[in-house]
Description:
Elements: E1 4-10, H1 15-49, H2 56-81, E2 85-92, E3 95-102, E4 106-114, E5 120-123, H3 131-134, E6 141-144, E7 155-161, E8 164-170, H4 174-183
Parallel strand pairs: 6-8
Antiparallel strand pairs: 1-2, 2-3, 3-4, 5-7, 7-8
Helix pairs in contact: 1-2
Amino acid sequence: MDIYMEYLIAKKKDTKDKLIIAGIIAAGVVVSLGMFVLMFVVAVAMAQAQANSENPVGTMAFSIGFVLVLFLWYGAILLINTRSIEYEYIVTNNELDIDKVMSKKGRKHLITIDIHEAACIARTDDDNYNDVYKNPPEGVRVLDYSAHSVNGYTYFIDVPLEGERTIVLFEPTSRMVDAIWKSNPRNVHRSQS
């Protein structure tokens, strides 16, 4: 019987995400204020140079500057939206695919794991099996594709990827863990809680 399951989970914004967003907003405010001051100075200088006539150049400079500020904030919003990340876990028979969905638009395939090759799959809070997760040997790569959600249970997979021992963190549903267990019952440790 073929197995196919998918689960999409939104990543909780961490301190790094919040600092990046705050930096983008602060840079947008500083650049906007600088542009408005520059537009005002140009408009005043043009008005003084042509005191007796209407100043279409000054008005045009102000309009162009205003449009540039609008484009600046449009770009800032696009950058902020890139911090909106979801992970999609897809189990197909004995494979687990993890994709990253950014701003509900762009998708990037991160990894494919052959569940048969996993040395251990268990919850990170399971003290019977999590020593490799808590104390990874030197040279072990750790990939965190978990959502850091308060209610979720984070699992780790100890698996060779691209010839390198890797620990992958993710937050599957209990049904997904059961499906993964069917592919590798010896090394998948399901929690009873």
